[in-house]
Design brief:
The chain is mainly beta and 224 residues long. It is built from two helices and 15 strands. A 15-stranded mixed β-sheet has the order 8-7-6-5-4-3-2-1-15-14-13-12-11-10-9. Strand 5 and strand 6 form a beta hairpin.
């Protein structure tokens, strides 16, 4: 299982050209700069069109590093009875385009997960639910905000530390609902061990996430 800052016209034109022109490495660098300037992204979590919770990313600079805080709080209720709950808190630290630290705690409807990742000797040391593994330094976490996820064949599960094989295809360009009206975005479909649909705007901001819940319901994260 998650506001717009406008750059100057010239800078925005460069971003648009890089993003939609497919210069992904350049676009990712511009994405990080844009997100650090935005500071926070808030999303409504919807289930079959009804709000069930909130998701948020908070971005901040620490010298050359980018810190990311991620929070999800979801409850599915029937009258006053909670049928399902999901709570997740994580922090990530990025340096030179690589994840160098991650810590997360999760309550998935009563199943708890705890995970810590640190960069060491050009590898990522992962300790998740008391199980230790070592993964490549360029591993991409499945926190979804990073545009780089559309390029990788494997992604790191940020709940339990498992590596998930994925395949990503570009569906096309389309307008999706944004906080200030329609936003022209690139729509990607991720299949495999993780199944998600992602929409990124020209600045590389994650505008929307969509996937099927375990009960077949339609789950969406919509930027607000």
């Amino acid at each position: 299982m998650l506001r717009s800052v406008r750059n100057k016209v010239g800078a925005a034109a460069i971003v648009v050209g890089a993003f939609f022109g497919g210069v992904m490495a350049h676009a990712e660098g511009l994405q990080v700069a844009n997100l650090a300037a935005i500071g926070k992204l808030d999303y409504d979590v919807l289930r079959d069109g009804d709000k069930i919770g909130d998701h948020a990313f908070v971005f901040s600079r620490d010298g050359d590093a980018l810190n990311v805080q991620i929070d999800t709080d979801v409850k599915v209720k029937l009258a006053f009875v909670t049928l399902y709950k999901f709570w997740h808190h994580a922090t990530e630290k990025w340096l030179d385009g690589h994840l160098v630290a991650l810590a997360s705690k999760t309550d998935d409807d009563g199943t708890d997960h705890e995970m810590n990742v640190t960069a060491k000797d050009d590898k990522l040391a992962v300790l998740a639910d008391k199980k230790a593994t070592v993964e490549p330094l360029d591993s991409m976490p499945a926190s979804l905000w990073n545009l780089g996820i559309v390029k990788v064949p494997v992604t790191l599960n940020t709940l339990d530390g498992s590596m998930m094989a994925i395949k990503t295809e570009l569906v096309g360009e389309e307008d999706v609902k944004g906080p200030n009206g329609p936003v022209h975005s690139r729509h990607y479909s991720i299949t495999g061990d993780l199944q998600r649909e992602l929409w990124f705007d020209p600045q590389g901001t994650l505008v929307k996430v969509r996937f099927k819940g375990q009960d077949g319901s339609d789950i969406q994260y919509v930027l607000k």
